[in-house]
Amino acid sequence: MIELQDATKRVGNVTHIKPTTLTLHTGHFNVLLGATGSGKTSLIKMMAGLDPMASGKVLMDGQDVTRLSTQKRQISLVHQFFVNYPHMSVFDNIASPLRVAGMAKSEIEGRVEEAADLLQLRPMLHRRPHELSGGQQQRTALARAIAKESRAVFLDEPLANLDYKLREELREQLPDLFAGRGAVVVYATSEPEEALLLGGHTALMEDGRVTQFGPTADIYRNPENIAAARVFSDPPINIGQVTVTGAQAQLAGGGGWAVSDLADGDYTVAVRPHRVTPYRTSDADVELTGRVIVTELSGSDSSAHFQHGDDAWVSLAVGVHPYQVGEDHSFYMNPAHCRYFAQDGKRVA
Amino acid sequence: MRTINQKAWFFVLPVLALVAFNALVPMMTVVNYSVQETFGNNQFFWEGLGWFEQILRSDRFQAALGRQFLFTAMILIIEVPLGIIVALSMPRKGFWVPVCLVLMALPMLIPWNVVGSMWNIFTLPKIGLLGYFLNDVLGINYDMTQQPLSAWITVIVMDVWHWTSLVVLLCYAGLVSIPDAYYQAAKIDGASPWSVFRYIQLPKMKTVLTIAILLRFMDSFNIYTEPFVLTGGGPGNSTTLLSIDLVKIALGQFDLGPAAAMSLIYFAITLLVSWVFYTLMTKDDAE
Asked: Which residues of A touch B181 (CB under 8 A)?
């Protein structure tokens, strides 16, 4: 378990991490999800002890490690770049942290071979890193992290520099590799899809702060703010303006429905594209009409971008639907799937 | 079937012509002299490999070659580790980086014969700052115009002063190209500063260091101007390095045949050592 308590980081006058309180557990992946520059790497370096904190505390398994040096924190870090000792064999690379720790030779061999088997590196143990493919180099770095048996493993966009096929392969393996090892696994990524695929918990990061943290599925279903709602959505989530008067919501681009728990006022509404369909899904559906701008067919799904008032909305539906670009088309949406946000972006209902 | 297109040769021709004019043709004239005897008047007599045999057997050549290897070995032993140490202790970022770089580059910008004159005046026993300081203040008996040991020390110190910067700058370039991630990995492993040097910095510097050593070897092995201006090869023959001896034979005694043969032997040694060294250093990567 890693706990951050009001942790902040500053470089000069620039605040990189705003006060952050976060508790990360073992047993599942903890994904830090955010755009480049949102503070994922800064947060990892703080927890790893590579960068000093301006204020706050880091606790590992209840022990205050804020002042503890990196090597004493018993952690591993896998980078986006393939970092291995250039003139050591794969075996020596995996064994290096164990040797520094002064482990017995026979135990080192056992551990290295176990890690090598997990990552299919057995035939490459006596090669040098530069004789390996990118995927094998990164697997060597992962094997080093696994063999070390650390209290925390930080994976900082480890798949970013791999090609598509390898990335998928390794991503599937990752949760199994670290399962049952008792280490807190922290995985930084800028791709929402990875967070969904890896499961576990997700911390959404934006501009040096964690905006929402919880089980990834919960964040998907119940975003706490408009930014979180936008994250897990491809195509982008539909955003509109509603005015509520007397328990009746009126969408700016046309369409209205009854709402029960919203005070009168203006709200932002968000609804995912697959909840807007060209056919009725229930009796409660509201009809929305708009001019079709773009249509796309991907696999067995068809999507239509349509102009709804001032907003461009997207409908994503299973099956192939005949849309004519430029025509007015009717779409249906069940208001039960709408999420409402106040003007400051906070979720209200 | 694969057709072989010979047109590509046309692209190589200009370079070939250039190399022929600035290297091959002048060298062939040297080859021409090295196998003949001439007494002027454009009269030549076939000598075969006689000059080569004579040079290789001569005590004078062997002594000069010995001094040459000693000199090159000494300056490499000093300049390479010193260059690495200085490069390691230079700042990686901030205000002092450009200051250090300019200071480092300064000695290399000074013309070679100026360096020789500078050190000559600097070390003269009675009037030179260093010479006066050593003799009259510290009481050390130092005179590079009289004592072979003093002359040798001066020649080597001068070369170290002039050329360590080259090693420093090349190593520094190698060092700053190492991503932070490597240092972080070492920190996480708990590696000692020595391990960081041995397993990260040294391997990452290997390529530039190979080039640095190669350049320093070739330059120092062919060195002429600085020791010539400083000591003129003396006292006696004690600092007569190969190129100084060569010039004495060719221009002093006008023995063109032996001088040409010596040039070729000289060239062959430089080439051979460079090739062996380079092959050994890059063998690992090719495997």
From this structure: 79, 81, 83
CB contact under 8 A, B179 and A88: no
- Whether B190 and A50 lie within 8 Å, measured CB to CB: no
The answer to whether residue A96 neighbours chain B at the CB level (below 8 Å) is yes
Find all residues with CB under 8 Å of B250, minimum gap 6, and list them: B256, B259
Closest CA of chain B from A228, distance in Å:
31
To the nearest whole angstrom, how far is the Cα of A100 from the nearest Cα of chain B? 7
Residue-level pLDDT, tens digit, chain B, 287 residues: 667 778 888 888 999 889 888 888 888 888 888 888 877 677 777 877 878 888 888 888 888 899 999 999 999 999 999 999 999 999 988 889 999 999 999 999 999 889 989 998 898 888 888 888 888 888 788 888 888 888 899 999 999 999 999 999 999 999 998 888 888 888 888 888 888 898 889 988 888 999 999 999 999 998 888 888 888 887 888 888 888 888 888 787 777 888 888 888 999 999 999 999 999 888 765 44
Q: Report ipTM for this prediction.
A: 0.70
- Is B200 part of the contact surface with chain A (CB cutoff 8 Å)? yes
Q: How far is Cα B126 from Cα B136, in angstroms, rounded to an integer? A: 9
Instruction: Locate the chain A residue with the closest alpha carbon to B182.
Output: A83
Chain B residue numbers with beta carbons less than 8 Å from the beta carbon of A76 are 188
Domains in chain A, CATH or no CATH each:
2-231 (3.40.50.300), 238-341 (2.40.50.140)
Pick from A74, A77, A94 the residue to mutate for testing the B interface (most B CBs within 10 Å): A77
Inter-chain Cβ pairs, chain A and chain B, closer than 8 A: 51
Q: Is A307 on the interface with B (CB under 8 A)?
A: no
Whether the bond between A278 and the residue before it is cis, its omega within 30 degrees of 0, is: no
Nearest CA-CA partner of A167 in A199, A138, A203: A138
Neighbouring residues of A67: CB distance < 8 A, sequence distance ≥ 6: none
Give the minimum alpha-carbon distance from B190 to chain A in angstroms, rounded to a whole number.
5
Number of other residues whose CB lies within 10 A of the CB of residue A248: 14
Q: How far apart are CA A316 and CA A311, in angstroms?
A: 16
SS3 of residue B100 by DSSP: helix
B181 touches chain A (CB under 8 A): yes
Q: Which CATH architecture has domain B59-286?
A: Orthogonal Bundle (1.10)
Own/partner pairs for B46-52, CB < 8 Å, 24+ apart?
B47/B257, B51/B257, B51/B258, B51/B260, B51/B261, B52/B261, B52/B264, B52/B265
